[in-house]
Amino acid sequence: MKMNRSLAILSSVALTFALLTGCGNAKENEQGAGNTPSNQTYAGKNGQQAEDPNDPLAQFPKLDMPFTVEPDATIVEYQGGKMTGKEFETFLRVINFMNPQQGGMIEVAGKDELKAFAREYTATKILSDRADDAVKKESKDMAEQTFEKIKGQYLAFFGKDEAKFDKFMEGQAVSKEIIVDQMTIINNSINVLKKEIGDPELKKEYDALDPANRTVASVRHILISTESRSEEEALKLVQDLEARLKKGEDFAKLATEFTDDPGSKENGGLYADTMVTQWVPEFKEAALKQPIGEVGPPVKTNYGYHIVKVENRKEKTFDEMKEQLRGVALERAYDTFSNSELDKLVVAYHIPEPKQPATK
């Protein structure tokens, strides 16, 4: 089992949107990968279904900790402090509240995974302790705002029923105060690192980027897959469609009818304002070089043959990319701290033994 990107580095905004991927009617991946099924829910644990699929509360069972530990037990000792069993459990419950998919991982965590969670939270606590009063105030304000955003998402899922949300919080053994306190610690750790990342440094990184890494494009395409037909059949069909398009037939209409790409079919083959680096090399090359507004020759990729029409493209400005670059720099700063400082500051781990799986 692999954990998501460092918990300490997740911004409040990222945590807010994490809920959308864990419950409700999640849309399929826009790039057509189809790896996010619709109506996906965190329904039951250990493979069990929720008791009543019509009750939204049943889709969020209380997090079942995979270990038992005394509240005052020491989980991690580090220079200048420690993490207790109560702190560790609270942290995991709040992570589950912010992202139910993480809850599923927590419940089946082995000792290595529990150590990874404990290490992440230790890093967060150490960095948070370095925050000054101004950072702490900003972090708490952010946490309050983020709680309200996440609450709004849950309320939408619960039909705007405040009583259901209150019952949900009680069932999860968390409160607004607990969640805001934990998010404040996370925000402190992020904001401490952010203070060291200035605009001049980010501008240097922007200037050093390959132009392709700054380019966004709106591209309409038709994919004729070679998965269920021969290459000869696919090429013949794509050439026929190319001829029809060059005679003036509507691209969006033909894409809706013929494309084998589920990610763009309903949009008439359109991917709007997308970083070209997200596409496979051959498609990316067409998006970068094909004349705007023209139907290009068929493009061959591992998926099949594409007819591509670039509707527009532009290079993002520094101001448009600054926060994206800051996020990358933030992850790099965390990695530097984690690799060069964290393990030197940790004195000892006392990770509780996971519960043994039930025997049949």
Q: Could you explain how this protein is built, in words?
A:
This protein is of the alpha+beta class. It folds into two domains: 7-195 and 328-349, no CATH class; 211-315, Chitinase A, domain 3 (Roll). Helices cover 49% and strands 12% of the residues. It is built from twelve helices and seven strands. The strands form two sheets. Strands 4-3-6-5 form a four-stranded antiparallel sheet. Helix 2 (85-98) packs across helix 7 and helix 8 (199-208) packs across helix 12 (318-345). The protein is globular and about 75 Å long. Residues 1-5 and 7-50 have low confidence and may be disordered. InterPro entries: PPIase_dom_sf (IPR046357), PPIase_PpiC (IPR000297), PrsA_foldase (IPR050245), Trigger_fact/SurA_dom_sf (IPR027304). Keywords: Isomerase, Rotamase, Signal. It comes from Brevibacillus panacihumi W25.
Count of structural domains: 2
Amount of helix: 40-55%
Judging from the principal axes of the Cα atoms, what is the shape? globular
State the separation between the terminal residues, measured CA to CA: 23 Å
The biggest beta sheet, please?
Answer: 4 strands, antiparallel
Order of helices and strands: HEEHHHHHHHEHHEHEEHE
Tally of helical segments: 12
The residue-averaged pLDDT reads 86
Strands ordered across the widest β-sheet: 4-3-6-5
Radius of gyration, taken over Cα atoms and rounded to an integer in Å: 24 Å
Based on secondary structure, the structural category is alpha+beta
Strand content: 5-15%
Any low-confidence stretches, pLDDT <50, length ≥5? 1-5, 7-50
In total, how many beta strands?
A: 7
